[in-house]
Amino acid sequence: MLSKRINGWLIFYGLLIVGLPGAGLVNALLYSVGLAGPLAPGFTLRHWQQIGTETGLIRSRAFSLYIALVSVGLAVGIALALVLGARNTLTRRPFPTVLYVPLLFPSLVMGFYLFQLLSRSGWLSRISYGIGLTTSIKAFPNLVQDAGGVGIILAHVLMAFPFLTLLFNALYTDARLADYHSLTQTLQRFDLAELPVGYGAGFLIAVLLMGVIGWLSRLVQRGAL
C-alpha cells in the first residue's frame, strides 16, 4: 500500500516537472504556427520565416550573449581571485557567511534591490547629490536599463560569484592544491638552467678525486704509506 502511494506521488511529480514545461512548449509551437491563440489564422510558417530576418531578434540574441559572457567571465574571475589569492581571508569569519547571503535572494528581489540602489532616483544617486558629487538627478550615470546592461551584469555577477567561490573553494580543498603548490615550490628550487654548471663542478671534483686516488696509490706502491 505504501509503495503504491510512493509510486503515485512519483508519477505526480514527474507530470509536474515534465508535463507543465512540455505543455508550455507545445502551446508555444502551436501559437507560432497559427494553430493556437485568440487571433490564430490557421497553419502558417510566416512567423518562423520572420525569425531569421527580424533585426530586433538578432540584436536581442547578441545582447543576451554579451550579457552572459561578461557576467560569467566576471563571476569566474572574482571567484578564482578569492580562492587563489585570498584564501586566508576566505576562511575567516564573517566572510564565509557573507558569501551565503546573496544566494538567499531570488533573482526578482536582487533586480529590485539593484534598481533601488543604482537608478537615478535610487540611494546612490541621492547620496551623491547630498554630498555634492552630482548637481541633479540627471547628472548621475544611468546604471539601470542602460545600453551597456550594467545593472543586469551586476545582478548576475552578485548572484553567481558567491556560488562559484564556494564551489571553487571546495574543489581546491578536496584536490589538496595547497599541498601540491608547496611541492612545486620545493621542486622549483632546482633550476634546470644551472645543470651545466653542476655537471662542470661534478666533473672537476671527479677529476680531482681521481688524481688524489692515483697519487695515493703510487705512494702506497712505493711504500711511502
Question: Can you describe what's shown?
Answer:
The chain has 225 residues and is mainly α. It has ten helices and no strands. The chain has helices at 2-32, 46-51, 55-85, 87-90, 95-100, 107-118, 123-130, 150-174, 177-188, 195-222. The chain starts with a helix and ends with a helix. Helix content is 72%, strand content 0%.
Core attributes:
elongated; 225 residues; mainly alpha; 72% helix
Produce the secondary structure layout.
Blueprint: H1 2-32, H2 46-51, H3 55-85, H4 87-90, H5 95-100, H6 107-118, H7 123-130, H8 150-174, H9 177-188, H10 195-222
Helix pairs in contact: 3-8, 6-8
The total count of strands amounts to 0
The ordered H/E elements are HHHHHHHHHH
What general outline do the C-alpha atoms trace?
A: elongated
Number of helices: 10
Helix and strand composition category: mainly alpha
Biggest β-sheet strands, sense, barrel:
none
Question: Could you tell me how far the N terminus lies from the C terminus, measured between alpha carbons in angstroms?
Answer: 103 Å
**Unreliably modeled segments:** none
**Rg of Cα set:** 35 Å
- Helix fraction, binned, reads over 70%
Summed up, what is this model?
It contains 10 helices and no strands. The chain has helices at 2-32, 46-51, 55-85, 87-90, 95-100, 107-118, 123-130, 150-174, 177-188, 195-222.
